[in-house]
Amino acid sequence: MALRLSSGSQKVRKRLPRPSKSGGMLESLIYMARNAVGRVNEMSEDIDWDSLTFSLTPTDTMYLTETSAEDPWMPGSLRPYGPIPMSPAAGVINYGQGLFEGMKAFRTSKGRVVFFRPEENARRMQRGADRLKMPPVPESVFIDAVEQCVQANLKWLPPTGKGAMYVRPLLMGSGPILGVAPAPSYTFLVYVTPVGPYFKGGVNAIDLLISEEHHRAAPGGSGGVKAIGNYAPGMMPSKKAKAAGYAEVIYLDAETHSYVEEVGAANFFCVKDGVLYTPELTGTILPGITRNSVIELARHHGIEVVETKVEASFAMDADEAFCCGTAAVISPIGSITKGDTKANYGNGTPGPITQKLYTQLVGIQNEEQEDIFGWLHEVPV
Ligand SMILES: *Cc1c(COP(=O)(O)O)cnc(C)c1O
């Protein structure tokens, strides 16, 4: 049984040497065994926890399992983090048959290690698998995979309040296929990385630009699932906006170009006269787990929530605005620019409702607030 973390006590353990790239099965097994024995609730001394951003820090161990299109998923295994061999004709490389998830594990103020609503990520990946004609990963396999991955990389889990372990499950058609059709076999992989805040500058309000030329998702398409192919088309508009001094773009709906859909890869909210508004889920909006949590939290605290079509002009006339997601948490929006018009919210600091929701959400995640909704899932360590 591992040690419970009491804040401040950081025992130091040197990293185990990694197996060589050409490492065979035996070497991998030895590595895994030693890693398991050495697995205690310690933190790496190789990281400056205060300077973590939302970027990739490679960790030691990943999880992988494979299946054919017909067979059920079997539990996979841990192995050293690193490249995976894949056919040049793999469905995912050729036709984008792939999904990702994003979730976080936290060290709480009570010394526990917890996931935030991981079952929701498992279910969302199953819905995505249906849409992309992949075999859905059972919830039990998904949860076991993400737990094992966090346990095996525990020393990379940031201290309470300094960030989180970002967990990235991937499901992809890894078998070879030439015709445009579902791949013959599939890989479910999980890797983890410690992360700090998503937007540089922490809780400072961000400036956003409404994209006039591009849309994220069209009705009937794949915008409602975390299909990997949804994200590359957003990179050019996002880069352009960043070069012009904005943190991200806001996408409007593809049909009428009048309703707010999302902020890059985060969901949008605004507050007007004490009421919280967010774009309703029409199929083109990703059903964020943070979005759902914010709605439940707000209602619990007596704030009226309206899920509806949110006109860009209405959003720009609101009192507060923020975006949210696992990575972004709750990020206050300082301004929205559309063409020549710029709408400012407050004085660059979060509005009162944004602040309240942020405090409640983060409070539950780090166990400074009671987990009244039962959102935390303890990872045994
Ligand atoms: C992942 C994602 C979100 C946020 O979802 P969470 O479950 O809250 O992390 C929002 N929009 C898009 C497009 C996403 O990919």
Jot down its keywords.
381 residues; alpha+beta; D-amino Acid Aminotransferase, Chain A, domain 1; D-amino Acid Aminotransferase, Chain A, domain 2; 2 domains; 8-stranded antiparallel sheet; 6-stranded mixed barrel; 8 helices; 23% helix; disordered N terminus; binds pyridoxal-5'-phosphate
Give a brief rundown of this model.
By secondary structure, this protein is α+β, with helices and mostly antiparallel strands.
Provide a descriptive summary of the structure in words:
This protein is α+β, with helices and mostly antiparallel strands and 381 residues long. The protein has 2 domains: 25-195, D-amino Acid Aminotransferase, Chain A, domain 1; 206-365, D-amino Acid Aminotransferase, subunit A, domain 2 (D-amino Acid Aminotransferase, Chain A, domain 2). The protein is 23% helix and 26% strand. It has helices spanning 25-37, 91-95, 118-131, 139-152, 235-243, 289-300, 312-316, 352-365; strands at 61-68, 77-80, 98-100, 103-107, 113-116, 164-173, 185-195, 206-210, 248-252, 260-263, 266-272, 275-279, 305-308, 320-325, 329-338, 341-344, 376-378. The strands form 2 sheets. Strands 1, 2, 3, 4, 5, 6, 7 and 17 form an 8-stranded antiparallel beta sheet that branches. The structure holds pyridoxal-5'-phosphate. The site of pyridoxal-5'-phosphate has 13 residues, from strand 11 and helix 6.
Oligomer class: single chain
Order of helices and strands: HEEHEEEHHEEEHEEEEHEHEEEHE
What characterizes the major β-sheet?
A: 8 strands, antiparallel
Helices, by number, come to: 8
User: Gyration radius, to the nearest Å?
Assistant: 21 Å
The small molecules bound here are:
pyridoxal-5'-phosphate
Number of strands: 17
The dominant shape is globular
Task: Give the name of the CATH architecture of the largest domain.
Answer: 2-Layer Sandwich
The proportion of residues in beta strands is 25-35%
The CATH class of the largest domain turns out to be Alpha Beta
CATH superfamily of the largest domain: Aminotransferase class 4, branched-chain amino acid transferase, N-terminal domain
